[in-house]
Automatic annotation (TrEMBL):
Keyword Membrane in annotation: yes
Keyword DNA-binding appears in the UniProt entry: no
Keywords: Membrane, Transmembrane, Transmembrane helix
This protein's name: DUF1622 domain-containing protein
InterPro entries: DUF1622
Taxonomic path: Bacteria, Pseudomonadati, Pseudomonadota, Gammaproteobacteria, Pseudomonadales
Transmembrane segments: 6-33, 84-102
Length: 116
């Protein structure tokens, strides 16, 4: 049974990682396309820029969540050693820090602060 779990988990981790990369890429392409279309319509550039940053930030946050999930699956199910758990902890901390800073950048407040 154990011999069956590792390859399936590795495949699932790779699939989820691909989804995360795809989400970030598709959001980036969509946001860029939308910004160019709005610039050609002569909309206000400041609002275009702010909405572009917020939409791109949301896409990156969503993609990061998939990438973290894939790292967790791979580490726990495929290659569980003290070294890989340590590397996973560092990667999760870095990605969590990125997520928090992106959230603060997009909303102007910490995630745990309530709505005004």
């Amino acid at each position: 049974m154990i011999d069956f779990i590792a390859p399936v988990a590795a495949w699932c981790a790779a699939l989820i990682e691909t989804i995360g990369i795809g989400v970030i890429t598709l959001f980036a392409l969509y946001v860029l396309y939308d910004a160019i279309a709005r610039i050609l319509k002569k909309e206000e550039s400041e609002s275009i820029f702010q909405e572009l940053r917020q939409s791109l930030g949301r896409g990156i946050l969503l993609g990061l969540e998939f990438l973290i999930a894939s790292d967790i699956i791979y580490t726990v199910a495929v290659e569980l050693t003290f070294e890989t758990v340590g590397v996973l902890a560092i990667v999760v901390l870095i990605r969590t820090f990125l997520s928090l800073t992106l959230e603060v950048e997009m909303s102007g407040k910490w995630p745990w602060q309530g709505q005004p």
